[in-house]
Design brief:
about 475 residues; alpha+beta; six-stranded antiparallel β-sheet; five-stranded antiparallel β-sheet; 30 strands; about 15% helix
Length: about 475
């Protein structure tokens, strides 16, 4: 019955009224608890000869609801939440005294709490995924605990013992005593860091670092390579995606065009000022997810790489030209990269024949990115060059190659698929669900994935609405 087609028009109705209208028009019974139906603004929409399934999925997704068909009745339900609860207590490792108001959160997620006066904490509704629990407290070394996929959490209260941070006995240069030249250098490096860390795409324009005073900058050489450390949690406000992020920065370096940042992130959703702003954030989050590293690794886990719009090629370094290049006729993906199950559930060993190029064929590179980075390759018109990382990357097969042979053709005027490079830093790195490298030092990225930077970073528990099942 859900696949029967209808012509349906909703004219300035609430969701409850829309369900009553569907009941009258289709003679199908609906069952739901009125409490779960949110008080949404009225909406108007028309459907011309579409299935009832499509109509229901469309109008219910707006309210974070879904449906099931049970014996001829359509049952409307809230998106499921889990019963996984993580309980624990934060203690001083030496004295065993409780540490009140410690910051306890699941890395790269929106799940987190502060411990109470006795150091106790409860984190509820944890998704079915592997995760790292991060605990931080002023004056103590941060601690990370690893939890496997579907690891039983109930009936246990985990004791987190925190070690007092060692005092740094090295001489410290006080900011007020810095010379004018040093302060000017810090301001320049802060501007570079904001661009390199937050990214350069349109999202970055709506991001800002709220407490830059916690950052220290170190120029490493005359080539402009630099390093950044943080004395406290870095606070980032991302109004492009609707998050405030607390980031415990362990390491940031920019060396010879390659940036490395390692740390733990805690996300908090900002309150939208209007329904329009909420819709804008939902669209921006979906755009950031599709084509991302997390999307690619999830598609690899699910065996849907091509279906999700990705293609994979090998990347090899040419020491003569100092360029990374890819063959125009790549091997099958199974010959380039594969996942093999590890000992823990939903954790995999990634076996790759070489570093890889990842192309997302459902998205194009921004014009600003192409103007800054792309040019014709020294080796011919069939490839384009990432000038910053000195890598040559093949064009997609279904684009006309003959058009690039025109003398004077500016490749920045041509739509190009989003292309990135993964340089593996470990042999057979581990990948965990939902779509992340278990070790933050497993890989470096070149190309498109470096463009958005932190401004397109999403919590691991995020999924676009059509995937929230």
């Amino acid at each position: 019955m859900l696949d029967l087609q209808y012509i349906i028009e909703f004219d300035n109705v609430t969701l409850s009224a829309a369900l009553r209208q569907l009941n009258r028009q289709t003679q199908i019974n609906f069952s739901y608890n009125p409490v779960i139906i949110p008080k949404m603004d009225k909406f108007s929409v028309s459907y011309d000869t579409v299935t009832l399934r499509f109509v229901l999925e469309d109008i219910l997704s707006k309210a974070n609801l879904y449906f099931k068909e049970v014996n001829g009745t359509v049952v409307v339900l809230k998106q499921p939440i889990t019963n996984r609860v993580l309980k624990g207590q934060v203690l001083d490792a030496e004295t065993q005294t409780p540490l009140p108001y410690a910051n306890v959160f699941i890395d790269n997620s929106t799940f987190g709490v502060a411990s109470d006066r006795e150091g106790y904490f409860d984190i509820k509704n944890i998704p079915e995924m592997a995760f790292n629990l991060v605990v931080s407290y002023v004056g103590y070394e941060p601690k990370t605990m690893v939890f496997n996929y579907k690891q039983p959490l109930d009936n246990s209260r985990y004791i987190v013992e925190m070690e007092v941070a060692e005092l740094d006995l090295e001489p410290v240069e006080v900011l007020a005593n810095k010379t004018r030249k040093q302060r000017k250098s810090d301001r320049r490096l802060l501007k570079r860091f904001e661009e390199d860390f937050l990214g350069r795409d349109s999202n970055a324009k709506e991001c800002r670092i709220l407490n830059p005073e916690v950052l220290d900058f170190f120029l490493l050489d005359s080539l402009g390579n630099y390093e950044v450390t943080a004395s406290d949690k870095l606070l980032i406000e991302n109004y492009a995606l609707g998050y405030e992020v607390g980031y415990m920065l362990d390491e940031f370096t920019f060396i010879n065009g390659t940036k490395t940042y390692i740390g733990n992130a805690q996300f908090r959703e900002l309150e939208p000022k209007s329904r329009k702003q909420n819709s804008k954030w939902e669209e921006a989050r979906a755009k950031a997810y599709y084509g991302s590293v997390n999307h690619f690794l999830n598609s690899l886990i699910q065996g849907k790489v091509a279906e999700e719009g990705f293609s994979v090629n090998i990347v090899q370094f040419d020491s003569v030209t100092s360029e990374y290049s890819t063959p125009l006729n790549p091997a099958k993906i199974s010959e380039i990269i594969r996942l093999t199950p590890a000992d823990k559930e939903l954790e995999y060993k990634l076996v790759a024949s070489s570093d890889i190029e990842v192309t997302y064929t459902k998205g194009f590179e921004d014009d600003d990115y192409k103007k800054l980075f792309r040019s014709k390759s020294k080796s011919g018109n069939y490839k384009y060059t990432d000038q910053k990382s000195r890598s040559t990357i093949s064009l997609s097969n279904d684009q006309s190659l003959t058009s690039y042979q025109v003398v004077g053709m500016d490749i920045s005027d041509v739509p190009l698929y989003q292309k990135s490079v993964i340089l593996f830093q470990e042999d057979d790195p581990m990948v965990s669900y939902p779509g992340y490298f278990s070790s933050m030092r497993s890989a470096l990225y070149l190309g498109w994935w470096t463009w958005g930077g932190f401004s397109v970073k999403l919590p691991l528990n995020y999924r676009p609405k059509e995937q929230d099942q």
